[in-house]
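Summary of Year 1 activities. Much of the first year was spent building the evaluation harness for sequence design. The harness presents a backbone, in tokenized form, and records the residue chosen at every position. We chose the following record to illustrate the format because it has been used consistently in internal testing since the harness was completed.
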């Protein structure tokens, strides 16, 4: 074992690079399994594997290096036509890729190799030793039957490896600087403080303008504040842009997940990704993966039917799941849509009555009934499976999205399919809000939660379908900096998403509208809420 001890910075670079190379490996395997022999796909993965092998050796992980070297040998033989892959071979390669990922993650955390890969390495050697047996390919080879035999180019010429960031870490010049996300967070907080003081100066200028003899000074002050506002806006946009990442960083894990789930459930599923370049705050990127996993698992297990059932229903045997992201104003909308069986509202209604979530004579629309699938522990399945679990998935989705100040809803047509729609803010740090007065207090409502503002007459203060907030005064729209609340405060019955500081120094609470209007919360507070919340 080498005495070399990699620094935490070097390990972080290694892990970041390794994850990209492992994504390339998964992509290659998925392409080969779906389309059959594809020399271009094999060529594209040899370079990343070669780089990963070199980096692993340099950083002191010889076991990982040796395993990746064997992977190179396997793909080189596939490229030469000396090894064809059948269904079992793909299962073994995918299992090996998972083991390699685990080994790299553990080694990067510990600074040393923890998980051995001897069994997986022996499996690869066994795979190559079986190459002489006639293979059963998953799909016919692409244009190789009539290709003339000729000398095979060496592996290195198939895909010239890109320069290793590990090798050039101490010698190469770079225009890229690694910055800890916590530092960006701190910088954005400072920008937020600047916005608060800018607002104070604006208020001061307006006050001066009302004073006799100070109007000229007030005009100069407001002009200077206007210039500061422009600079602070540019600074805010620049810092926000640095924090933004393509949602591809989340989406890229799902082709492999869908492949494994389809194999496990015996279904045929095609995953389509759209809008992978849509950018969103890294703080949201880090949190959105888990709820999306639950929704995709739900689509695979509850939505997409078995091939025979689909054919009987006049559908193609292969189901489709569409995962897309689009930016709409200051929000990102993520959609998970499948062409499966859909959700039967009557089944959900019956289950909800059994669990006491509804009364049998409640006049609730099918659309509203279907939203009950997000209730804690709710499931229409009697049997528990590894994929669907114990009915906790969609409850986790709702809680996770609400923590991100987002909204989630479901639309479905029985026999046609289901669509989950998630709306998230672009950032969790600075939001646009509607400021309102209720009696002698001011509150901020995230603008994404505001559908409309209307003036009510007394007779219109109650209704059967919607819930709203009645306020005494609308103060207008303003950008506010979100400050986290102490857990003891944020756990109060009427949920708050945070607080902000106004230009005059007042602390204003930001309403968590999704939690405030949650059915269970309203039921618990019924009789104690002011009439403003009982519309």
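For this record, the design step produced the sequence shown next.
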């Amino acid at each position: 074992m080498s005495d070399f001890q990699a620094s935490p910075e070097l390990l972080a670079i290694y892990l970041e690079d390794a994850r990209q190379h492992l994504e390339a490996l998964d992509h290659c395997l998925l392409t080969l399994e779906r389309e059959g022999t594809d020399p271009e796909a094999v060529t594209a993965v040899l370079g990343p594997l070669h780089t990963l092998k070199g980096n692993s050796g340099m950083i002191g992980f010889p076991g990982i290096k040796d395993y990746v070297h064997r992977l190179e040998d396997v793909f080189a033989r596939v490229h030469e036509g000396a090894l064809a892959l059948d269904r079992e071979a793909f299962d073994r390669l995918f299992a090996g890729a998972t083991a390699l990922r685990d080994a790299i993650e553990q080694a990067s955390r510990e600074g040393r190799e923890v998980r051995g890969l001897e069994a997986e390495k022996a499996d690869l050697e066994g795979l190559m030793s079986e190459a002489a047996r006639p293979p059963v390919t998953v799909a016919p080879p692409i244009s190789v039957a009539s290709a003339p035999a000729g000398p095979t180019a060496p592996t290195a010429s198939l895909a010239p490896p890109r320069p290793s960031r590990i090798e050039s870490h101490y010698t190469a010049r770079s225009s890229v600087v690694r910055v800890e996300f916590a530092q960006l967070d701190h910088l954005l907080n400072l920008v937020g403080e600047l916005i608060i003081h800018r607002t104070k100066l604006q208020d001061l200028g307006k006050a001066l303008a009302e004073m006799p003899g100070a109007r000229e000074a007030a005009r100069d002050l407001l002009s200077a504040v206007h210039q500061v506002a422009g600079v602070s806006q540019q600074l805010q946009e620049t810092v926000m842009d640095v924090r933004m990442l393509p949602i591809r960083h989340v989406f890229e894990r799902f082709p492999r997940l869908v492949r494994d789930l389809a194999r496990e459930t015996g279904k045929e599923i095609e995953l389509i990704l759209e809008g992978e370049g849509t950018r969103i705050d890294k703080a949201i990127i880090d949190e959105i993966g888990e709820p999306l996993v639950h929704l995709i698992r739900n689509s695979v297990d509850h939505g997409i039917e078995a091939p025979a059932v689909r054919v009987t229903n006049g559908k193609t045997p292969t189901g489709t799941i569409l995962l897309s992201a689009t930016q709409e104003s200051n929000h990102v909308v993520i959609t998970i849509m499948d062409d499966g069986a859909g959700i039967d509202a009557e089944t959900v209604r019956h289950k909800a009555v059994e669990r006491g979530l509804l009364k049998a004579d409640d006049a609730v629309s099918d659309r509203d009934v279907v939203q009950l699938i997000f209730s804690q522990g709710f499931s229409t399945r009697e049997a528990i499976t590894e994929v669907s679990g114990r009915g906790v998935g969609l409850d986790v989705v709702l809680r996770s999205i609400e923590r991100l100040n987002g909204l989630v809803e479901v639309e479905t047509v029985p026999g046609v399919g289901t669509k989950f729609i998630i709306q998230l803010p672009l950032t969790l740090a600075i939001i646009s809000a509607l400021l309102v007065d209720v009696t002698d207090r001011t509150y901020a409502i995230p603008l994404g939660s505001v559908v409309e503002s209307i003036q009510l007459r007394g007779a219109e203060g109650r209704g059967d379908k919607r819930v709203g907030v009645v306020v005494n005064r609308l103060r207008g729209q303003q950008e506010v900096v979100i400050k986290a609340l102490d857990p003891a405060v944020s756990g109060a019955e009427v949920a708050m998403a945070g607080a902000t500081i106004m230009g005059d120094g007042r602390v204003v609470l930001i309403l968590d509208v999704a939690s405030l209007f949650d059915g269970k919360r309203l039921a618990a507070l019924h009789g104690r809420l002011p009439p403003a919340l009982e519309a």
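DSSP finds 18 helices and twelve strands in the chain. Quantitative recovery figures across the full test set are reported in Table 2.
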